[in-house]
Design brief:
A hairpin with a 2-residue loop joins strand 4 and strand 5. By secondary structure, the chain is of the alpha+beta class. Helix content is 72%, strand content 8%. A 5-stranded mixed β-sheet has the order 2-4-5-7-6.
């Protein structure tokens, strides 16, 4: 796409510049509209989530109402227990106050120790400065006192050792100061925790008093509600008698409706059989009426290529080959569509299927062209399942063929086949290290005519996985997939475990 710079347009192209600006404005409005639609969709999802939460909360409130009556009996027992706990808390409060006083005294002691440590550190610094001054004097004296070099050297060694000792002492004092600071911080933290606990105890004591008053009020209300329930009980007895009479009338109505429903089921069954016959006729018509013109197109095109190929240039020859290729593709598409439509009418015959033998037969039927990668299969033990052998064989054919097709651009084609049990199901899988697909387009994976790769990359009609899903669904199973782009895919499908 060529991008036009409006500043480089000629001065006479005012209309072109105005159209360009209008296009830019419309593009910006389209982007804003898309963002607003996305925002509205998010808001819609949030509202749906809030509605679900509101329904759950309503159910919770109803349960809470029933629990309150039971809690009222428990509350009376708890009130007696709380009075005893109140006395215990008062005793604990006295102990906490004594402990808080002790902590304050400990804090003052730690502060005094910190002051002493600071003074001692200052003294060490002064000693260090004095030793440094003495070292300067010793160096000057060493220059002028060459004759007493040996004596001064000995004194210098002694002074250096003393200086090293003083540095070590200084480091020890610094470490002690750090420990004293940490201990002081710990004491402050302990003091704050005790104060917080004291506040919580006071709040809990006030809360218990309020709860005591609330329980007394609820007891009065419960007594009134109990009297009201007795009145309601008498009313419900009358309503129950009325409901029994209505129930008898409803049973008579249900018998009549059942008779009418059986007749409607019979009529719908006859209509469904008629529709199935029409669908079979339509499939037969499509199979023959569409195949004939496609075969004619393919045949005439081959005649043109054989008889008049020398008269055509390179473009003409390419067009003929394109016609032949597309007519062949159309025939394959009709075959897949017919196979897909027949699945809905085929009767599923459940029996024990030996999956090891079935996969082995599918593997033996595979054929490869010269130069094509020969797959390396890693097949684990496959448990038997309760399924239709012919239909499940088609599932294995489609999944294994797809793994081979989408791995052909890799240096090596490696396919893993295995299974594992989950509850009453057997989950089978086919894994490859091929091209893979982007999981954000997963919802299109099993759709009819839905392709996640272009026709130029990998051939196909886009119906194979739809057929697989329909077969597994007719077995009351589930199919799903996991994939990473350019790293490979793994397809899973579940079937009922075979039980003797």
């Amino acid at each position: 796409m060529i991008k036009i710079d409006p500043d480089n347009l000629p001065d006479g192209d005012g209309n072109l510049r105005q159209q360009y600006e209008e296009n830019e404005s419309q593009a910006a409005e389209l982007v804003s509209a898309n963002k607003e639609i996305a925002l509205q969709y998010q808001e819609k999802n949030k509202r749906a989530a809030e509605l679900i939460i509101a329904n759950k909360e309503l159910d919770y409130q109803n349960e809470e109402k029933e629990n309150r009556a039971a809690e009222l009996v428990i509350a009376n027992k708890e009130l007696i227990f709380q009075n005893a706990e109140k006395e215990n808390r008062a005793a604990e409060l006295i102990i906490a106050n004594k402990e808080l006083t002790f902590q304050n005294e400990e804090k003052e002691n730690r502060a005094a120790e910190l002051t002493i440590a600071n003074k001692e550190l200052a003294f060490q610094n002064e000693e260090k400065e004095n030793r440094a001054a003495e070292l300067i004097i010793a160096n000057k004296e060493l220059i002028f006192q060459n004759e007493e070099k040996e004596n001064r050297a000995a004194e210098l060694i002694i002074a250096n050792k003393e200086l090293v000792f003083q540095n070590k002492e200084k480091e020890n004092r610094a470490a002690e100061l750090i420990i004293a600071n940490k201990e002081l911080a710990y004491q402050n933290t302990e003091k704050e925790d005790l104060a917080a606990k004291l506040v919580i105890l006071n709040k809990e004591l006030a809360y218990q008093n309020e709860e005591k008053e609330n329980r007394a009020a609820e007891l009065i209300i419960a007594n009134k509600e109990l009297a009201y329930q007795n009145i309601e009980k008498e009313k419900r007895a009358e309503e129950l008698s009325t409901a029994n009479r209505e129930l008898k009338n409803a049973e008579d109505d249900i018998r009549k409706l059942n008779d009418e429903l059986e007749q409607k089921v019979t009529d719908r069954t006859a209509q469904l059989e008629a529709v199935n016959k029409e669908l079979g006729s339509f499939s037969y018509s499509v199979s023959h009426d569409l195949r004939a013109p496609i075969r004619a197109i393919n045949g005439y095109t081959k005649i043109l290529a054989e008889d008049y190929g020398d008269l055509l240039d390179e473009d003409g020859t390419g067009i003929l080959q394109s016609i032949i290729h597309n007519s062949k593709k159309m025939g394959e598409l009709i075959d897949d569509l017919l196979a897909f439509s027949k699945l809905g009418r085929k009767q599923v015959s459940f029996t024990e299927v030996d999956m090891n033998a079935l996969v082995a037969s599918v593997r033996e039927d595979l054929s490869f062209e010269e130069g094509e990668n020969i797959p390396i299969f890693e097949i684990a033990e496959l448990p038997a399942a309760n399924a239709d052998k012919s239909l499940i064989k088609q599932v294995w054919i489609n999944l294994i063929s797809n793994s081979i097709k989408y791995s052909r651009n890799k240096p090596e084609t490696r396919i893993s086949i295995g299974a594992y049990e989950k509850d009453d199901l057997i989950v089978y899988y086919v894994k490859d290290a091929g091209a893979g697909f982007d999981m954000q387009y997963y919802d299109k994976l099993f759709g009819v005519f839905q392709r996640l790769h272009s026709q130029e990359e990998f051939e196909g009609t886009g119906i194979g996985l739809a057929i697989v899903q329909k077969i597994v669904s007719r077995h009351n199973g589930t199919i799903w997939a996991e994939s990473v782009l350019e790293e490979g895919s793994c397809f899973y499908f579940s079937l009922q475990k075979f039980n003797n």
